[in-house]
Amino acid sequence: MTHPSTTIICHEHRALSAMLRSITLLLSEHRRKGTLPDFNALEAMLFYVDEFPEKLHHLKESQLLFPKLRGRNARADAVLDRLERDHACGEQAIRDLEHALIGFRMMSDTEQCQARRAEFERLMKQYVDAYLEHMHVEEAEILPLAEVVLSADEWAELDAAFLMNRDPLAGYEADEVYRPLFKKIVGALRHSGNVGSVLEAFAGAVLPDHIPDTGSP
User: Fold this and answer.
1) Closest CA to 139 of 128, 129, 150, 131
2) Minimal CA–CA distance to 61: which of 126, 100, 105, 8?
3) Do residues 93 and 50 make contact, with C-beta atoms less than 8 angstroms apart?
4) Which residue, 18, 71, 162, 210, could crosslink 202 as a Cys pair with Cβ 3.0–4.6 Å?
């Protein structure tokens, strides 16, 4: 049996994976062309990662899901310890990325431009690789364990909590306050120099069709 919370976690993983891969594709495309990226769009994308996965998705995993799986066996506890360390490091990693992006932007018209670009791209790749592995471990080891050991009452609590998540890229309509953010992100992706490749990164995630295509990022 697949529970709503499991489905939501996997959908949010696909949305985040798509966003991270899209950032990577955008950076690669601009490096190939020798052009500067859309800094406003990159800031919006990092804000999404910070606002939804880091502060909402991770919080519910750490506070609600992981404690219910503690003490089942030594291997599971070791995996949970690793995932908790990842969660704990996530906020600082985002701060480091945001700082590196500000440095890249502020110094983009100086002789430091390429060094700043390289540093941001290095940190971004490091973050993406670590996050993709993190999500793989959750789906390969933690969610299957949860399906086996959790009770109906525990699933009911988890489902109620995760059904409150409103991540637009996981298929929900954006709250009014966030619509300009997703308009900016989707506009940047649709009007990237390599539209096909960037949109291909969203396979499995839901582009929010309720956000109009304005013709500009």
Assistant:
1) 131
2) 8
3) no
4) 18
> Residue 129 contacts by C-beta under 8 Å, 6 or more apart in sequence?
none
pTM of this prediction?
Answer: 0.81
Please name each of the domains of the chain with its CATH number. 4-200 (1.20.120.520)
Length of the chain in residues, anyone?
217
- pLDDT at 82 exceeding the cut of 90: yes
Q: What is the pLDDT of residue 209?
A: 47
Amino acid found at 110: T
Most confident of 10-24, 30-44, 170-184: 30-44
Residue 16 parent element (H or E): helix 4-33
Question: What distance in Å separates the CA atoms of residue 71 and residue 55, rounded to the nearest whole number?
Answer: 26
The pLDDT, as a whole number, for residue 105 is: 97
With a CB cutoff of 8 Å and minimum separation 6, the contacts of 24 are 124, 125, 128
Residue of 97, 135, 130, 133 lying closest to 116 (CA atoms): 97
Using CA atoms, how far apart are residues 161 and 158, in angstroms rounded to an integer? Answer: 5
For the chain, percent of residues with pLDDT exceeding 90? 43
Mean pLDDT, range 39-55, rounded to an integer: 83
Give SS3 for 155. Answer: helix
3-state DSSP assignment of residue 134 = helix
What is the DSSP secondary-structure string of 153-170?
Answer: HHHHHHHHHHTT---GGG
Cβ–Cβ under 8 Å, residues 199 and 185:
no
CA 85 to chain centre: 17
